[in-house]
Design a protein that fits this description.
A six-stranded mixed β-sheet has the order 2-5-1-6-3-4. Helix 2 runs parallel beside helix 3. The chain contains four helices and six strands.
Length: 145
């Protein structure tokens, strides 16, 4: 254990967050996402933990990319779903406490294509569907440490 690090962040996740460079992307996948279907070398399991809990834990540590318009990518629900996933409001509330950013919304299959190139996938127990979220890492400027 470390002081000041939320215990939701496993040692493996902390290592991955540190290894990621500027522009690297990490996917926090809901419980229905086929995480192991991708040829991604880094898959972290955080069973029993939902995505809002993880975002609350990592956002004080994780800079989002300020060199792109939308450093956050969400999976757009199919038309038959009929609404925005409820959990998105939680995501936006948590993230807005740390940084003002834009969001990109990708159609389901375009989202799957994007996921093939992420640095890591974090498989969670998030129950809401279409709850997947990709974060693009930014830089830490000398005056923002």
């Amino acid at each position: 254990m470390l002081k000041g690090i939320d215990p939701v962040i496993s040692p493996e996740l902390l290592k991955i967050l540190c290894e990621m460079g500027h522009g690297s992307e990490i996917l926090f996948a809901d419980g229905n996402f086929p995480s192991h279907d991708y040829n991604v070398k880094r898959i972290i399991r955080l069973d029993g933990i939902d995505i809002p809990a993880i975002l609350k834990a990592i956002m004080p540590l994780f800079p989002l990319d300020t060199f792109v318009e939308s450093p956050i990518v969400l999976m757009q629900p199919n038309n038959d779903f009929g609404r925005e996933p409820n959990v998105w409001a939680e995501y936006k509330d948590i993230i807005s406490k740390y940084q003002k950013v834009g969001y990109e919304y990708l159609e389901r299959f375009a989202y799957y294509d994007r996921c093939a190139n992420v640095y890591a996938i974090v498989a969670t127990s998030e129950l809401e569907i279409y709850a997947n979220i990709i974060l693009k890492k930014g830089v830490i400027f000398p005056n923002n440490r």
